[in-house]
Amino acid sequence: MSITTLITTTIDAVKGFLSVNGNVKQPDIQYHPDETKYRARTARRLAKNPDLPNAALPDGFPKQVEGPIVWEGKDWTHEDQWVYKLSDAQLAEIDSAVAHFKNLGKPMGYISRETFPLPTLSTTLKGLAGELYSGRGFFVLRTIPIEKYSREELAILYAGISSHVGSGRGRQDVTGAVISHIKDLSVSHAHVKGHTGNTAYTTDKQVFHTDIGDLIALIALETAAEGGTSKLSSAGRVYNELAATRPDLINTLTELWPFDSFGGDPGYTTKPLLFYEDGHMILQYTRRLFTGYGEQTRTPHIPPITEAQAEALDAIHFLAEKYALSLNFQKGDIQYINSLGLLHARDAFRDDSEHTRHLIRLWLRNDELAWRTPKPLEPNWRKLYSLGPHEQRFPLEPEVRKKDNRPRK
């Protein structure tokens, strides 16, 4: 790294931790990326320091990463490459497993590979779980006959199948909920403060991001009347382009970033967005924590992000968009995603009286196959996957997630 680049990077990092009460303000950046602003910001920064593209990569970071999880959307030519279609015999196994668990009379937190037995499908799911960690990083199970089951039976079925993919279920809010309903809550929960602070609970476009944890599962109870296309993109492919063209932004992504807690205690926490751990490129971030969204505006009295960080956020999004794969999400599909190595997004959508988009999400981890968790993420992972069976809650109807605003020790 040249001395000019080193000085610029250091100044940017220092600015990021100055109070907004001083001379440094939050950059002109919003949740929805603006390509014109992004290009202008890039031009300004390069005009100020043309040496930025000559920066050295952070210690230990490779010039490029390889492997099956490093791909471009054009690499996939037909959905049969990632869709596994359940056979009648396998659907019968699932029916038997639902009945078996119900007969046990146990709370749903006790759903596991043992209590939801799938004699032959289990081997297939184990292989597909390997695809998440050692392969392309995603697959879709098609198709669960949704109308056949009660809402409780669907929760048992969904958690049961998923226990053969990842046995660890992550908490999704402070109440111990391990499933979350992803749908537009702007009408049914308009009276609840906070429901429009997360795009997941609106019809708005979700920009590229990752969820917390190892794996994401989504089952489609219903699709939208129009829109709502699910998109995936390889974090490794995004990394390779940035490493080749703007290594200074790789340095920026490995710095400490101020994550807004939106009224939590403390008001913000700090950690990097990018990690290289045991040969895996890991990206973990959600854009709204740096820009705000809806009624959750960026907290004014915490450190702003820097101009370099604003450029890095946009660079990730537009590169992810460039190399994205769009998935045809059908009613009854279950989508599984590696949230460490892939980014995901969703187009805006429109519901009508007959089609109201409704997904249910699980956060999972397969301890036998899991990648090593980067140390800065370990506290969150311990909290995420620490719920015992008796502490797990399965809300059968949509609700607004409840945050934990208790002081952190």
Automatic annotation (TrEMBL):
Highest rank taxon of the organism: Eukaryota
Oxidoreductase found in the keyword field: yes
Molecular functions per Gene Ontology: oxidoreductase activity
InterPro entries given in the database record: AlphaKG_dependent_hydroxylases, TauD-like_sf, TauD/TfdA-like
Residue ranges occupied by any TauD/TfdA-like domain in the UniProt entry: 107-363
UniProt entry keywords in alphabetical sequence: Oxidoreductase
Pfam families reported for this sequence: TauD
Keyword RNA-binding set for record: no
Protein name per its UniProtKB record: TauD/TfdA-like domain-containing protein
